[in-house]
Input
Amino acid sequence: MSAARLIHLNGPPGVGKTTLARRYVDHHRGVLLCDVDVLRTMIGGWRQDADAAERSRATALGMITAYLRTGHDVVLPQLVARTDQLIRFATAAAEGGGEHVHVMLTIDPETAVRRFRARAAAADDEWTAYATADWDAQGGNAALREWTARLDRMPAIRVPSTDPGSTYAALLAALGEGA
Output
């Protein structure tokens, strides 16, 4: 049996990380979906708590390590653009006896902005409203374009984010699972 994997789906906001992770989990028995953003919203007062982001990430790292030790995969939809943070996830995977598989969902910057804005307009949940306001405070569309370019320079397995079906098929191929 092969080592359990931390399948880290990375990419700009709105690229489809969470949607793809949910689809993967729906088709793979025993795989844990570890969504750091969901964990963050489970912390009382998270909107006003400057440390909630770090605590939710630390919690996710512990969950990842523990779950990989059970011999099962974890899928993580999480934007990570800093090498030091990426190393934390790779270390958690290794400590759990697993492999860190870093998958970058790629998209051109203008499509990233368009998808992000469409998601923000259609969403009715607190996290999306919060994240949209946070991105806007960081520079809005210009920041999204900059982060998309920064992510494009990171080492990872590249999977183009097009439509959900094609992107899922490309992910499976990238993971060596076929269609």
User: Anything to note?
Assistant: The chain has one domain: 5-171. The first strand starts at residue 5 and ends at 10. The longest helix spans residues 52-68.
